[in-house]
Amino acid sequence: MSIDTIEQFQKDYQLRLAPRTIRAYQSNILQFFEQTGIPFQEITRKDIRNWLMWLEEQGYTPTTIYTKLIGVKTYFKYCLEEGWIATNPAARIPYPKLPDKVPIYLTKPELTQLRACVQHSLLERAIVEMFVSTGIRMGELVAMKKEDINETDRSIHIPDGKGNQGRIVLISLESLQYVQAYLASRTDELPYVFVNHNATKRIRHQKINANFQVYSEQLGFHVHPHMLRHTFAAHLAQKGMPGEAIQQLLGHQRPATTQLYARLFNHARKEMYDKWM
């Protein structure tokens, strides 16, 4: 194994992928080489298949194995592009079949209950509305700045989405009004849309997660921020928006995520169909 090639891979991909994704790829690549013990120039397709079998024997789930394989595939593709290897041993390795699970999302009555649960706080209601109306990720929400919001056309620029791919998302008029009311209630000069209780810095992931834990206890059913991203996608599917358009709004790149939301899309549309029949 050449640590130099992994470090160079990390440097060249740091502008293409989110830092957390890069770290995960690096960890998976290192695990691969530690388990195989073979120099990267000598790796064959069989070595990769044996590693996948080893992961399965160790009890890793198909979803985790899928994710690990993405990192290894991306690395060897990079090695080929750089001319370090003559052929890509990972190119024709198929991804493991993922379980046919549908992401959990809130029904409209459950969403109504959640909104009632946060009605006491402008900040918390604005955060819930932002998640539900835009489908953005937690990291995108906490990093969002006031300048990213275009109130005229009710759009939000997400400059550093996952994979450093910027995109535009839309927000409903009602949700925007909650965000505007929250911003109007503040007296600080911080550039962030959502700030902590003392208005000294942007709100933290941990605080939002803690709030959602409280909501779950009060509501009697589990709810977390990423579930609202699923809810956003499912409700758009039920209204008839094409799956490809929903994926663009969500900023998808990974094949596994695309497949996951394709199942959600089909499930949500079927639910709507069954209500009409």
TrEMBL record:
Pfam families, A to Z:
Phage_int_SAM_1, Phage_integrase
Identify its protein family: Belongs to the 'phage' integrase family.
Organism encoding this protein: Sporosarcina gallistercoris
InterPro entries under this entry?
CB, DNA_brk_join_enz, Integrase-like_cat_sf, Integrase_catalytic, Integrase_recombinase_N, Integrase_SAM-like_N, Tyrosine_recombinase_XerCD
Entry protein name? Tyrosine-type recombinase/integrase
Give the record's keywords alphabetically. Answer: DNA integration, DNA recombination, DNA-binding
Nucleotide-binding as UniProt keyword: no
Which PROSITE patterns would you find in this protein's record? CB, TYR_RECOMBINASE
Q: Which PANTHER family match?
A: INTEGRASE_RECOMBINASE PROTEIN MJ0367-RELATED, PHAGE INTEGRASE-RELATED
Span of domain Core-binding (CB): 1-80
Q: Which residues form the Tyr recombinase domain?
A: 101-274
Positions in coiled-coil regions: none
